[in-house]
Amino acid sequence: MAVVDVFNCKAEKVSQVELVEDIYNVEVKTCVLHEVVTMQLANRRAGTSSVKTRSDVQGSTRKLFKQKGTGRARRGDIKSPLLRGGGSVFGPHPRSYAYKVPKKVRRLALKMALSEKAQSQFLLVLDKFDLEQIKTQQVVQILNALKVEKALIVADTGDELLRLSCRNLPHVKVLKPEGLNVYDIMKYKHLLLVEPSIKAIEGRLLK
């Protein structure tokens, strides 16, 4: 097992913790990470774009002029796609872009993302966040002490003060262990794990 240092809010080393090799020391394959991130982004698409076809456009269905004898091209009703204000042809309609990747692949990609942060020294472990009230400035001071700017913080379910204190920080996001995902891990430079969340992550990935 890999051993990493545990810091407090003043960036002082207070102890050490062992990280499971099967989660934090897995060979990283970019193709697997790409596949899962692409799936996550596709599932987030709203798919609400929609246009009107000629049957949806309001207007008369009478023929604009007779078929022959005018020397002009044949013309149907005013809702033709060739005319201004007419319906669209082959335009977008509401649809779902969601698809699934096998659960084993998703779990493996999550292990690879955690391993990548651990191997690149961008994974930090904190013993706890000492917040007595909702205070954004206090979180900023803690991150500055740790020399961290853009960070994903993984905290247990009891850290509601931390979540509310970070909601105005554009480059900081707080997640519960069960909400941890590949896209957010790769998006943020640093991964901060509050020590109690490590057991929760292991319980999720070592099934």
Give structural notes.
By secondary structure, the protein is α/β, with parallel strands linked by helices. It has 2 domains: 2-46 and 98-205, Ribosomal Protein L4, Chain: A (3-Layer(aba) Sandwich), CATH 3.40.1370.10; 51-91, no CATH class. Helix content is 33%, strand content 14%. The chain has 7 helices and 6 strands; from the N terminus they run E-E-H-H-H-E-H-E-H-E-H-E-H. It has helices at residues 21-24, 30-44, 103-119, 136-145, 160-166, 182-187, 196-205; strands at residues 2-7, 13-19, 123-126, 151-154, 172-175, 190-194. A 6-stranded mixed β-sheet has the order 2-1-3-6-4-5, sandwiched between helices. Helix 4 crosses helix 5. The radius of gyration is 27 Å and the shape is elongated. The relative contact order is 0.18.
Brief overview, please?
Helices cover 33% and strands 14% of the residues.
Output the keywords.
207 residues; alpha/beta; Ribosomal Protein L4, Chain: A; 2 domains; 33% helix
Layout: helices, strands, pairs:
Layout: E1 2-7, E2 13-19, H1 21-24, H2 30-44, H3 103-119, E3 123-126, H4 136-145, E4 151-154, H5 160-166, E5 172-175, H6 182-187, E6 190-194, H7 196-205
Parallel strand pairs: 1-3, 3-6, 4-5, 4-6
Antiparallel strand pairs: 1-2
In CATH, the architecture of the largest domain is: 3-Layer(aba) Sandwich
**What spatial order of strands do you see in the largest sheet?**
2-1-3-6-4-5
Sheet of most strands: 6 strands, mixed
Alpha-beta classification: alpha/beta
CATH topology of the largest domain: Ribosomal Protein L4, Chain: A
**Intertermini distance:** 18 Å
**Looking at the chains present, what oligomeric state does this protein adopt?**
single chain
Low-confidence stretches: none
Kindly report the average pLDDT value: 91
DSSP strand tally: 6
